[in-house]
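Aim 2, interim progress. The first record below pairs a target sequence with its structure tokens.
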Amino acid sequence: QVQLVESGGGLVQAGGSLRISCAASGIILSIDAMGWYRQAPGVQRELVATASTGGSTNYADSVKGRFTISRDNAKNTVYLQMNNLTPEDTAIYYCNARIATTTWRFSDYWGQGTQVTVSS
């Protein structure tokens, strides 16, 4: 079994910063892409940022220049540094990873989500 455990969410004022983390554990043969998605009430889940094993990254236009995704492959962990937060960033943030466990077939795994609330 594989688990993705997120941490670091919370309440912050507009203009502030937060860093959230997600660690994968369990039977892991290899991890491909890791990333973050978010879902606000009444809105579809949307991509925030992804990072490949090799370090290439991709960001939603709404967070470019403010958020930075990084990963520590040795720790099977992905981070999201969020700066200059706005109330529009308020959402539950979900970690996603494509993981091969006992065979070289990759599947998507999701964390339980961590709440980020930005007050105006």
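The second target in this work package is listed in the same format:
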Amino acid sequence: QVQLVESGGGLVQPGGSLRLSCAASIAMTFSVNAMGWYRQAPGKQRELVATITSSGSTNYADSVKGRFTISRDNAGNTVGLQMNSLKPEDTAVYFCNADVFSTSLGTKRYWGQGTQVTVSS
């Protein structure tokens, strides 16, 4: 009933840019509330990168403020993450998520499969 599909990861040099995208496929009776991006580096816990509400309010981790920009298209249930001035410490698997509401299930959080971002020279 809910699928999140990410795209846009890859290898980039320090100082470079990448854009991640995530599309949520949902049943017609469902609605998407907040969406966001998390990341997990090897040997570390998954951490928040950025979130955006359905009204467009955003929240960023301190480590990415001023470099990353989250955006969304409510009509298409998509969320993007523009990543600029990338650093080696941004290397991680990036996961998108969506808080999806339905009258039958209430609000549940769903996750994408993850996309690898590697920042290296």
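The chain has a mean pLDDT of 95. This observation will shape the mutagenesis plan for the next reporting period.
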